[in-house]
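User: Sequence in, structure out. Go.
Assistant: Echoing your sequence, followed by the C-alpha cells.
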Amino acid sequence: MSARKQAVAGGGPVRQDHAGGRARPTRPILAAAALLLAVGPVAACTGSAAATAAGKSSSPVSGGTFTYAIDSAQLTLDPGVSVSAVTGFIDRNIFDSLVVQTGPGSFGPWLANRWTVSPDGKTYTFYLRSGVKFQDGTPFTAAAVKATLDHIANPASKSAYAISLLGPYVGATVVNALTVQIHLSSAFSPFLQALSTPFLGIQSPVELAKPAADYTPVGTGPFTFVSWPQHQDVNLVRNPGYTSPPSNAAHRGIAYLSALHFDEVSEDATRYGALTSGQVQGIEDVPPIDVKTLEQTPGFYTQSDFLPGLNYMLFFNTTSGPLADVLVRQALSASVDVPALVQGLYFGQFKVAEGPLSPDTADWSDSASAALTSYDPAKAVKLLEEAGWTTIDAAGYRVKDGQQLNLVWPYPAALNRQQRDVLAQGIQAYAKKVGINIERPTVDLGTLVSDFLAGKFDIADAAFARPSPDGLRFAFDSTQTYAKGGANVVGLDSAQVDGWLNAATATSSPAVAATAYANVQKYVLANAYVLPLYTPSLISGYTSAVHGISYDAQAYPQFYDAWLSS
C-alpha cells in the first residue's frame, strides 16, 4: 500500500438486454477506449475513522442490494476482449482467476491449488480445485482454462488488452481434468501477475463456443450476470453455488450481498448527488472538490489510495507532424506548469507525476525523474527556436515554412472523467504562451479510431492500472502497436528499449529487471515521448451502511466480503 492509505468518515438505452444483444467491438475501438478509460479503481486501505463509522454492526449480515455508481460505459463485458478498468472490476465479481496476488511479488491459490514452473520458465503446470462449477452448471476443468486462454489468443476475438497480458503464450495442454500446462515461447516473469487479473479470468467454455453476438459473461465467481440494460447499467445476483473464493478472502462460502448493481452515472455532480441523497450506496470518483465535505458529512465515508501502474500522461505521436522533432516535444513539456495545474484542480487528492510509473509500482525509478523536462517557459522558447519555429503570426502562434505550429488532441467527450477536459484547457493555455496551438476537436469513438489508425493526431492521453512495471511493455514495446491492441501510440520503435523490456521479462533476477525498467523510464522521459501529469486515485464514497469493502492488488474494489447494515 502507498503512504496515502486514506479512509475518513463523518460523524454521525431502450430495451432490457444482456451482453449478447451487442457484438464485441473491434480491437481498434477497444484500444481507443483504453486511451481514455483505462484509469480505474485503485487499491485502498481502511483506517480507524472509516471503521468506526461503518462498523456499528460487527457481524456480517446476509442479503441486500448494493448499488455502486460508475462514471463510464462498458464496450463489452468479455474480460478477454475488454480493455476498460471499470469493466475489469465489474467482471472481477463474475470471474475467478487461477491465482490471487497477495503482495507486490507474492501469489496464492485460487482456482489453482498449486503450480510449478519449469526450470527454463517456459512451462507452468497448474493443479486445479475440484468440485467447482461455472454459473451455467458446467464443471470447471483444465479444458476451461485452455479454452479461455485460446479465446484471448485467437485473432478473431480481437482482444485489446488481455492478449498483451498473455505475453509469449504458445498454447495449453490438458494433462487431465484437473491439470493443465501452459506453454510460453520464452520466460515471462509477469505471467503469474497477469493470470491474477480479471482480464485472464476463467470463462465457461460453453459460453465461449457461442457466436460473439450471443456472448454472456459466465464464470465461477461469487456473482452471476443478469442483465445489461441499454448497455449501461450492469446487474448481478449472488451465485448460490459459489465455492471458490481466493485464499486471502475474509470468509468462505457464498457472498453476503444478494445483488450488485453498477449504475453508469457519468456526470460528477449527479453521481455525487446520487450518493448523498441515498439513491446509491457507493460511487467511484468522488469529485476532489467534494472530498472534504463528504468526509465531514455524517453517515458517509471515503476510501482511496494511489494507483499502481502507468500514470495519467500525454502520449506524443512521434511518427509524423511537429512532434516527430524531439525539440518540439521537449518544448511542449517545458511549457506546461504541471504541478500548478494538478494541485490547483485536484486539491491535493492526486499526486503530481514525475515519470511514467506511479511510485506505488514495483521497479519505479526515483532517479528517472531527473530526465523529465520540467516547467521552464524560457527553455521552451529556446527549444522551439532551435527547431526552426522562429516566426510568430498575428494570432501569437509560431510558424515554420508557412505552417502554423498546430497540434491535434482528439476529445471524445463521452469518455471524459476526472475533470480531464478542464486539465486540458490549462495545458492549452500554457502551450499558447510559447506559441503552440493545441486543438481539441470533439470526436465520437468511431472517428477517434479512424484518426488513430491513420495517425491523424498529435497527442493522446491515458493511464493504465496494473500493479506491475510490465505496463511499460504495453505502452512502449515496438510490438505493442495500437493496431494490434497495444498502447504504443507514440510510435516508439527502438531496439534498445525492446531489449530492456525483453531483459526485464525474461530474467529471474530482481536487480536485472529493476535496472532494465529504470532504463526504459529514463529513456521515454529524456526523449519526451510522454508528459506525465498525475498519479490517479479513485476516491470511492460510501454510506456508513456499507461494510467489508476491500481492494485487491490489481486495484479493484472487492464486493465478495461486502455487506450492508440497516
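User: And one key feature?
Assistant: Residues 1-34, 36-56 have pLDDT under 50 and may be disordered.
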